[in-house]
Specification:
Layout lengths: L2 H11 L5 E2 L2 H7 L8 H7 L6 E3 L4 H14 L3 E4 L16 E4 L6 E5 L2 E4 L5 H10 L2 E3 L11 H7 L6 H4 L8 E7 L7 E5 L15 E11 L3 E8 L2 H13 L5 E7 L1 H4 L3 H6 L5 E8 L3 H10 L2 E7 L1 H7 L10 H9 L3 E3 L2 E3 L4 H12 L6 E6 L5 E5 L2 E3 L3 H13 L3 E2 L18 H10 L15
Parallel strand pairs: 2-4, 3-4
Antiparallel strand pairs: 1-2, 5-6, 6-10, 7-10, 8-9, 8-10, 11-13, 11-14, 12-13, 12-17, 15-19, 16-18, 16-20, 17-18
Length: about 450
């Protein structure tokens, strides 16, 4: 039997599951935001699943896994589909397991949440706030993204300025993972053990539960801050990040050409001004303003936390990779890179890029803490795309200046964030937990 026939047999055997069979649903749920990359857009445009299924609990998932293994059906697991690397796009058809109905909040207590992987981060944030807590880390796509998707394919986000990326010790406390075997096993992991499943695109097991640490909730005010000089904006952002007495949730820097893609910025910035988006607690306004004056900046636009809660419009959605989405809406010839800068050489590296390529590459910086709490500057610079060859040249130019690039224009695990190779531990877990190589086929280059 073919993969399509085996997938249809899977539906016939398990008719009580929630199957989505319409071509429109299959096409939509077979995609993520891969089209941010012109290279991935060309490579993945025709890839799709044969069927979509939405398990609602662990028992349904176990039934499904038993039959997928028996019938040799490829499996791709997805959450909200907000990733940008094609990580939830099936390369070989089969079934997509959409986890968004597997979304129960088990409990919140003592600053810890136990949650099923399909719960949207926005919903988890709301539930946590009812108990006086909030998420330590969430992407700018938090309204759509799931907690399982963040752990399986994400890095950092809003809150990482305090708590580091999602992989920092103490952020994810425990995980339960289901293997792709008949019958499947449940693996229970704590602490560092969970990291073998972080940013692996669901290739070495299916997350069924996470325990994540929370942060005390704050009232966050939002500011667009304007600077005539980019160096002043960067110095302000670094000082804010290092100011232990100022409560903040996100600090992002954009040069004038990148800020022009945001409606509020274009309406409130003067020509040539650079932008800092600052998410700051209400009780830290006064010291922030003192620092702002010292660094020669001004408030271009702001709203208090109550206004944001009422109008549901937040500057958080202009940070991290959501900014790329805003830019692409105005100019679909743009794309982006993912860059890690040296904090102590940041301005030197930015100047080197500008000297070699001019305004072909924009500036978008996110200031966070690394896993050891030191200052860490990551970026998502906008690129004026022309050809694949020129894109590779731009990557090489960044690397020659000591800027590390996590290539967002590839869909294999090794060639993106993992820096060329997967750890032996991840490869071993892949072989042990997916012995038939059915999970997200084609995404682990080492095994292709």
């Amino acid at each position: 039997m073919t993969t399509i026939e085996n997938t249809q047999e899977l539906q016939r055997i398990l008719p009580e599951l929630n199957w989505l069979t319409s071509p429109i649903h299959i096409k939509r749920l077979s995609k993520d935001f891969y089209w941010f990359s012109p290279l991935l857009k060309a490579q993945l445009a025709d890839k799709k699943a044969d069927l979509i299924v939405r398990p609602r609990n662990e028992d349904e998932l176990k039934q499904l896994i038993c039959e997928t293994v028996r019938l040799n059906v490829p499996v791709t697991v997805r959450g909200g589909g907000t990733g940008n690397y094609g990580q939830s796009i099936p390369l070989n058809g089969g079934v997509i397991i959409d986890m968004t109905d597997f979304n129960q909040l088990n409990w919140i207590k003592d600053g810890v949440a136990s949650v099923r992987p399909g719960m949207k981060l926005g919903s988890l944030e709301e539930s946590a706030r009812e108990s006086g807590w909030e998420l330590r880390c969430m992407p700018s796509t938090y309204k759509m993204a799931t907690i399982g998707g963040l752990f399986s394919g994400g890095f950092g986000g809003i809150g990482s300025i305090n708590y580091g990326p999602i992989s920092a010790s103490g952020n994810v406390l425990a995980a339960r993972v289901m293997t792709l075997e008949n019958p499947p096993r449940i693996i229970e992991l704590r602490g560092y053990e969970t990291l073998n499943f972080h940013h692996t695109y669901g290739t070495n097991g299916i997350l069924v539960e996470l325990e994540v640490a929370l942060a005390p909730a704050r009232q966050w005010d939002e500011y667009m801050l304007a600077f005539a000089d980019l160096s002043h904006a960067v110095h302000f952002a670094k000082s804010m990040t290092n100011s232990v007495g100022i409560d903040k949730r996100n600090i992002a820097v954009f040069d004038a050409q990148s800020a022009a893609h945001f409606s509020e910025a274009s309406e409130n910035l003067k020509a040539g001004e650079n932008l800092v988006i600052a998410i700051v607690s209400s009780n830290s306004k006064e010291p922030m303003l003192e620092l702002l004056e010292e660094k020669l900046g001004r408030i271009a636009w702001s709203q208090i936390a109550a206004d944001m809660q009422q109008n549901q419009h937040t500057l958080m959605e202009y940070c991290w990779n959501h900014s790329t989405l805003h830019a692409l809406k105005k100019d679909d010839s743009l794309t982006y890179l993912q860059a890690n800068y040296l904090a102590d050489k940041l301005l030197e590296q930015l100047a080197g890029i500008r000297e070699q390529v001019g305004d072909e590459v924009g500036v978008h910086l996110e200031f966070i803490r690394s896993t050891d709490s030191s200052l860490f500057v990551t970026g998502l610079p906008l690129i004026h795309y022309s050809t694949p060859e020129r894109l590779m040249e731009l990557i090489s130019i960044h690397q020659s200046l000591g800027i590390k690039i996590n290539n967002p224009h590839v869909y294999t695990l090794e060639d993106g964030k993992h820096g060329g190779r997967l750890s032996d531990e991840i490869l071993t877990s892949k072989k042990q937990n997916d012995p038939h190589s059915l999970l997200n086929v084609g995404k682990v280059r080492s095994l292709c």
